[in-house]
């Protein structure tokens, strides 16, 4: 070793330089000091937003218990097996209109603010829901549902408000609360529809008015509309504007979070560029999520529609011959089961299992949910008294146990929606592309919802009318589609970042 090298080596270990462990200790202390503090959950704003959000599921689900009965009362056909065709058309029109308006409402909200778009949408939904209850022809029903779908397109704007009033430090508290609103509305809506349809015949002493006899479905629609008006009023009073350009200097939670993040950041970070749609779809995991999301939405929507049709159809035609009230109680039970699963089980499942594998498991539950429906019909046939046309007490109890079980399976399968959101966030190529990544998958899901009700309703009607595969052709096709969805979900396991890692 030369003297020069010795000198250089001594300089490198000069005592004036900070020691390694001292530097690490200093950095650790700095990180502890500079770590952003948790932002308090904006309870008032979150409560106002949840009230506003509750309007949509109530208005959307309150018609499910009686929509088939409504179509039958319009005398569109003399064949009960064809009723499902028209009820599916009514639901598809709503979904197609909503699909067409989602982007435009979001774009408008970026200009005029979130509040006006939310209030216009909810007020319009209130009016169109009342129009639906006053309809006396298929044309007026379709117009009311079409307009209702257009106004319901503001749902993306409501989601945006949630993102703007929360940040990364408090969203884990706010998101589960917000996520419970749809199951809650799914309980209230069917109860309203099943309880207050045909009120003059159900409660003649109290509601035996001629107007309610002429319009037997206006009362549940009026109640849903009144709830919407109350939601608009409370939102107008308590919900603040969250669009940054319209806040008039007010700081939101997200702005506080960015301030904390700025203090914690010691070096400038170059902004990431979002990828285009074609670039995102060229990524195997993103295309797999979009395609699997399409299949998930199609199967889940089809199950919701065919379950109502199955409950409404006569036992001889392969159904359960339930009344509107009984269908309403069934759907309310489904909402309660979904809320319990989300509140009590979802957090544990996410902590315990790999997300991609959990997603595949949920998708794999759908075939069993469909398969149990015809078994329930066999139970009803076996317990039907041909003399009175009534079901025995034991048979009724068995049917309700079976319904609770099949609905539980469907809600477990629907957990795939929540897991999909996490998978998108984990596998997005960068933070700037997260919005586009969510948009692609959500569009695929919404597109499936736009035609699934019409297709599965027509399939159910054709199967029962022509007795194809003993009336179970719809089941064979839906089982096949469900298994195809299972196969597609395996690709997510193959390409998911966390699973591969």
What does this structure look like?
Helix 3 runs antiparallel to helix 14 (218-238) and helix 17 packs parallel to helix 20 (366-382). This protein is mainly α and 501 residues long. The protein is built from 25 helices and no strands. The protein has helices at 3-12, 20-34, 43-61, 67-73, 83-112, 114-133, 138-151, 155-165, 171-179, 181-196, 199-202, 204-207, 210-214, 218-238, 253-264, 277-281, 284-312, 324-352, 355-363, 366-382, 393-413, 415-427, 434-465, 473-495, 497-500.
What key attributes describe this structure?
501 residues, mainly alpha, globular, disordered N terminus
Q: Helix and strand layout, with pairings?
A:
Layout (H helix, E strand, L loop, with lengths): L2 H10 L7 H15 L8 H19 L5 H7 L9 H30 L1 H20 L4 H14 L3 H11 L5 H9 L1 H16 L2 H4 L1 H4 L2 H5 L3 H21 L14 H12 L12 H5 L2 H29 L11 H29 L2 H9 L2 H17 L10 H21 L1 H13 L6 H32 L7 H23 L1 H4 L1
Count of helical stretches = 25
Query: What share of residues is helical?
Result: over 70%
Order of helices and strands: HHHHHHHHHHHHHHHHHHHHHHHHH
Strand content: under 5%
Query: How would you sum up the global shape?
Result: globular
Low-confidence stretches: 1-33, 249-270
Q: Could you tell me the number of beta strands?
A: 0
Query: Kindly, what is the distance between the CA atoms of the first and last residues, rounded to a whole number of angstroms?
Result: 46 Å
Radius of gyration, in Å, reads 27 Å
């Amino acid at each position: 070793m030369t003297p020069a090298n010795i000198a250089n080596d001594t300089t490198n270990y000069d005592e004036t330089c900070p020691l390694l462990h001292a530097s690490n200790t200093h950095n650790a202390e700095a990180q502890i000091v500079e770590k952003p503090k948790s932002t308090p959950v904006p309870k008032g704003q979150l409560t106002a937003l949840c009230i506003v959000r509750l309007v949509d599921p109530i208005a959307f689900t309150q018609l499910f218990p009686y929509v088939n009965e409504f179509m039958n009362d319009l005398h569109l056909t003399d064949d009960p097996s064809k009723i499902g065709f028209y009820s599916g058309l009514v639901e598809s029109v709503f979904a197609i209109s909503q699909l067409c308006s989602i982007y435009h409402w979001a774009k408008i909200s970026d200009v005029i603010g979130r509040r006006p778009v939310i209030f216009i949408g909810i007020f319009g939904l209130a009016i169109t829901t009342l129009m639906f209850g006053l309809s006396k022809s298929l044309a007026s029903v379709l117009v009311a549902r079409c307009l209702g779908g257009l106004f319901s397109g503001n749902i993306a704007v409501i989601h945006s408000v949630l993102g703007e009033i929360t940040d990364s430090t408090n969203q884990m508290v706010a998101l589960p609360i917000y996520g419970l609103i749809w199951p809650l509305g799914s309980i209230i809506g069917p109860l309203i529809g099943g309880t207050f349809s045909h009120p003059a015949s159900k409660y003649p002493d109290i509601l035996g008015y001629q107007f309610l006899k002429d319009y037997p479905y206006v009362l549940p629609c009026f109640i849903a509309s009144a709830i919407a008006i109350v939601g608009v009023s409370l939102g107008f009073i308590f919900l603040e504007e969250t669009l940054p350009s319209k806040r008039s200097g007010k700081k939101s939670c997200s702005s506080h979070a960015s301030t904390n993040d700025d203090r914690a950041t010691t070096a400038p970070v170059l902004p990431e560029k979002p990828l285009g749609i074609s670039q995102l779809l060229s990524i195997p995991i993103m295309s797999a999520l979009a395609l699997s999301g399409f299949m998930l939405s199609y199967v889940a929507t089809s199950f919701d529609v065919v379950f109502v049709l199955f409950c409404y159809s006569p036992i001889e035609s392969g159904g359960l011959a339930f009344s509107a009230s009984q269908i309403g109680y069934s759907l309310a039970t489904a909402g309660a089961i979904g809320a319990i699963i989300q509140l009590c089980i979802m957090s544990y499942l996410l902590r315990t299992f790999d997300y991609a594998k959990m997603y595949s498991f949920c998708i794999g539950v759908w075939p069993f949910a469909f398969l149990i429906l015809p078994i329930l019909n066999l139970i009803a046939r076996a317990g039907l008294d041909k003399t009175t046309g009534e079901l025995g007490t034991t048979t009724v109890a068995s049917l309700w146990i079976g319904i609770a079980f099949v609905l539980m399976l469907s809600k477990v399968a629907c957990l795939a929606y929540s897991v999909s959101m996490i998978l998108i966030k984990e596998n997005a190529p960068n933070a700037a592309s997260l919005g586009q990544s969510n948009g692609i998958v959500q569009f695929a899901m919404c597109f499936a919802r736009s035609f699934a009700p019409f297709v599965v309703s027509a399939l159910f009607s054709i199967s029962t009318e022509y007795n194809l595969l003993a009336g179970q052709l719809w089941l064979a096709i839906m089982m096949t589609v469900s298994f195809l969805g299972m196969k597609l979900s395996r690709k997510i396991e193959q390409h998911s970042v966390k699973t591969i890692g």
